[in-house]
Write a structure and sequence with these properties.
The protein is an alpha/beta fold. The protein is 37% helix and 12% strand. The chain is built from eleven helices and nine strands. A six-stranded parallel beta sheet has the order 3-2-1-7-8-9, sandwiched between helices. It has a three-stranded antiparallel beta sheet with strand order 5-4-6. Strand 8 (282-286), helix 9 (295-300) and strand 9 (316-320) form a beta-alpha-beta unit. Helix 5 crosses helix 11 (337-374) and helix 10 (323-334) packs across helix 11 (337-374).
Length: 383
């Protein structure tokens, strides 16, 4: 399964951190946070390599049943979900890299020099039209959250979701009921937008951006006339500072990591799987195995990657299926399946009803405007 619509693969797996001169405090905070987390990672790596510390086996078996029994035991209270594009494909949103159907395979009509250019900040500033044309096709609000999104909402309602780290920019986690504190939108969001000028940086809300995009206007700043870009992370831009600060607090406390719908190829997001404790179980729900340790690193004694199949495997479980089917299967083992299906049914009905009301309101407004425009002014009586 490919990575999130939200972000293409960054600079051959590495993220370039480019300081933004207008906000030095944020940059220094990000550098400190990234430095701290790098040190934590190295400590864990050397501890694993040297055989220091214990690696307790928490699951009684490395299966979905084993994960379900662990959750139902009451010992699991700080679940972190890491999600990518695969959780949204059943909503009709394409992922990036699937051959034939992925986003990168269908960008020919935009005449790009290479597919990733549509998310390259320098290219965007010179040629914004392709990005905004694509944004009209994929704009949030045209899709409904999936079973997988609502499964995470249930984890929140049951008080065992610590955080969801998402690569996606479709905002479906928010639509499903996860709020700002529940989410780390690692690759940004359409929820807010900013002027790209370092000297301005005026903020705009989602409704403002939506109006501009669907009126075929290139969004320009009301204050300085520069381009306005949704707050999604392009190539050449920093990840949000909150990504770095939160992962330092969250991952050491995680007692179950659930990874869904991502190929774990984009850094630094992919490296998060290595930041949980050595005894923390990790469940992958995906169409193929992902995040496995590089064989060369294994020979050198370096750990951290997922290990599903070796004789040394003790905590990683791979459930190969669509994300929706995997979440339904886990919900059934937990005794939550009927509750989950009812939640999805109710929420989709609510979204459909809300959409009909909005369309009806737009139709009435358009009719009134047309009537007003067609009404001829009464001629003045001749004196």
């Amino acid at each position: 399964m490919s990575d999130a619509p939200g972000l293409p693969k960054r600079d051959e797996e590495e993220e370039e951190v480019t300081p933004e001169p207008e906000d030095q405090s944020d940059d220094s905070s990000e550098e400190e946070a990234a430095g701290d987390t790098d040190m934590d990672f190295l400590r864990n790596l050397f501890s694993s390599t040297l055989g220091l510390g214990s690696a307790d086996k928490v699951l009684d078996e490395l299966t979905l049943d084993g994960v379900a029994r662990y959750i139902n035991s009451g010992k699991c209270k700080n679940i972190i979900c890491m999600v990518g594009a695969g959780i949204s494909t059943s909503a009709g949103i394409p992922d990036f890299r699937s051959p034939g159907t992925g986003l990168y395979a269908n960008l020919q009509k935009y005449n790009l020099p290479y597919p990733e250019a549509i998310f390259q900040i320098d290219y965007f500033k010179k040629h914004p039209e392709p990005f905004f044309a694509l944004a009209r096709e994929l704009y949030p609000g045209q899709f409904k959250p999936t079973i997988c999104h609502y499964f995470m909402k249930m984890l929140k309602e049951k008080g065992i979701l610590r955080r969801c780290y998402t690569q996606n920019i479709d905002t479906l986690e928010r639509v499903a009921g996860l709020e700002g504190e529940d989410l780390i939108e690692a690759h940004g969001t359409f929820y807010t937008s900013h002027c790209v000028s370092f000297c301005c940086r005026k903020e705009y809300n989602m409704d403002w951006m939506k109006e501009k995009i669907f009126s075929d206007d290139i969004p320009k700043c009301d204050k300085c006339s520069s381009l306005v870009k949704p707050d999604i992370v392009f190539f050449g831009e920093n990840l949000p500072v909150r990504f770095f600060t939160s992962m330092k607090m969250d991952f050491p406390r995680c007692d179950l990591l659930i990874v869904m719908g991502t190929s774990l190829q984009v850094q630094p997001f992919a490296s998060l799987v290595s930041r949980v404790s050595k005894s923390c179980p990790r469940l992958l729900i995906n169409m193929e195995k992902a995040g496995q340790a590089d064989p060369l690193f294994g020979l050198l004694g370096f750990g951290g990657g997922m290990d599903f199949d070796s004789d040394k495997a003790y905590r990683d479980v791979a459930h190969i299926s669509t994300c929706d089917d995997g979440c339904l299967a886990l919900a059934e083992l937990l005794g939550w399946k009927a509750e989950l299906e009812e939640l999805v049914k109710q929420e989709h009905a609510r979204i459909d009803s809300q959409g009909k009301k909005e369309k009806a309101g737009e139709g009435k407004g358009a009719t009134a405007a047309a009537g007003s425009a067609s009404a001829a002014p009464e001629p003045k009586a001749e004196e």
